[in-house]
Each structure stands twice: as structure tokens, then as C-alpha cells.
Design goal:
Strand content: 25-35%
Shape: elongated
Structural class: alpha+beta
Radius of gyration: 21 Å
Helix content: 25-40%
Distance between the termini: 15 Å
Largest sheet: 5 strands, antiparallel
């Protein structure tokens, strides 16, 4: 049972806090012969699989290393262009490491802003008045849990499907948000939360959850 991340969205829909707690690192390493039967393209300063998924390598995965040499953008750490290396027959057989793309801060901000209108639409679609909106969004590999405070701030947790007691965890996070963020004289509402005591207490709660379960937080 795992908590992957915690997100706090302001009442206006902006991401004001995020914490990646236990994001699984999925990487696949394989040796290829010439010609390369996977089509790659450069997207958002990353080399991404566009076509030809196989052996755990999927469309959307990012190329992280060639023959053990890490890649930044489309350039290897030794200065060579990754596409030039891949197109040169003399470099084969070649070892490539692929992995799931890491979310950037901008992508997290974008996703938070997308969830906000979905939450509002769900409230309006309810046949009953005063609907709380989306509380749980379930996918085949994870669950997204949401708790909206009385002021409209949303606490969100992405967890494993089997993680129990997330509702209790959300309310516990709300408590430390009130204690360490809202009571901080240097914190302004709607602004990103940069409070060391809040960070430390959140990490402590998540670590305690993993060690001893939801009943001890």
C-alpha cells in the first residue's frame, strides 16, 4: 500500500503545493541491433518513443541513456547528439535505457488547473443540491482522492488502489495545513506553500503511515 503524491489546489484552481512521496521508477534497458525498430522523436526537450512499443517499452516513454551515458534533452553527457549516434550503423549493437517520463512542475500546474473545472462540473451534474464534487477518481493503477475544505482549498492524494484510510490521511493533512501554513504570519492565501514545518510534518505523517498504518497517524 503506497501514497504516490500529495497536491494542494487553491480555491481559484492553482497548484500551491505538491510532494512526490513514492513515485515508482519504471525503467527498461535493452540492446538493439541495426536498424533501430523503434521510432523516436524530440518533444518538450525529451526524446520520446513515438511508435514500436515492445518488451516493456511503451509509446510515451523517454530515452534516458545510450550505452550507459545519460541524455539531457537530445544530447549525451559526452556532447554527442543522440540522434546522430542512433543513426550511425557503426554504433550497433547499442544499449538503450527507457523509462516513464518524469512530470515537470509546469505539467503538475497544468493538471491541477484541469482538475478544478472537472470538480466543478461534477458538482453541477449531481441530481442532489450541495454536492461535494469528485471525492475519488479511480483508474486501473491508482486512485485520486480529493477533500475540499470549507474555504474551497482542495487536498488531493494519489495512492495505490489498495491504500486504505486515505480519507483520514486527507483530514490529517488539512490539520497540519491549518497549523503550520495558515498560522504562519509570512504565508499569504492563494500563494505557494513554502513552510519548512509543514513539509517536515507531512513527510513524518507519510513515513509513519508506511511503517505502522493509518491508525497511528
Amino acid at each position: 500500500m503506497v501514497v504516490y503524491g500529495v497536491y494542494i489546489v487553491s480555491k481559484s484552481g492553482g497548484l500551491i503545493f505538491n510532494h512526490d512521496h513514492n513515485v515508482p521508477k519504471i525503467e527498461t534497458e535493452k540492446t538493439f541491433s541495426y536498424p533501430l525498430d523503434i521510432k523516436l522523436h524530440c518533444e518538450n526537450k525529451k526524446i520520446v518513443v513515438e511508435f514500436g512499443q515492445r518488451d516493456g517499452i511503451h509509446v510515451g516513454h523517454v530515452l534516458y541513456a545510450i550505452n550507459g551515458i545519460p541524455i539531457t534533452g537530445r544530447q549525451l553527457d559526452d556532447g554527442r547528439d543522440a540522434f546522430e549516434v542512433l543513426e550511425n550503423k557503426e554504433n550497433y549493437p547499442i544499449n538503450l535505457k527507457f523509462g516513464r517520463p518524469k512530470m515537470t512542475t509546469n505539467e503538475k500546474i497544468f493538471l491541477a488547473s484541469m482538475f478544478y473545472p472537472l470538480f466543478a462540473i461534477a458538482s453541477q451534474l449531481s441530481p442532489e443540491p450541495k454536492s461535494s464534487g469528485i471525492e475519488v477518481l479511480e483508474a486501473d493503477t491508482f486512485k485520486l482522492h480529493c477533500f475540499q475544505t470549507l474555504t474551497g482549498v482542495k487536498m488531493m492524494i494519489v495512492s495505490d488502489r489498495s491504500q486504505a484510510g486515505v480519507e483520514i490521511l486527507l483530514k490529517r493533512i488539512y490539520e497540519i495545513y491549518a497549523d503550520y501554513a495558515l498560522k504562519n504570519p509570512f504565508y499569504s492565501l492563494e500563494m505557494p506553500i513554502r513552510c519548512e514545518l509543514f513539509d517536515l510534518n507531512l513527510k513524518s505523517i507519510l513515513d509513519q503511515l508506511e511503517k505502522s498504518g493509518i491508525s497511528n497517524i
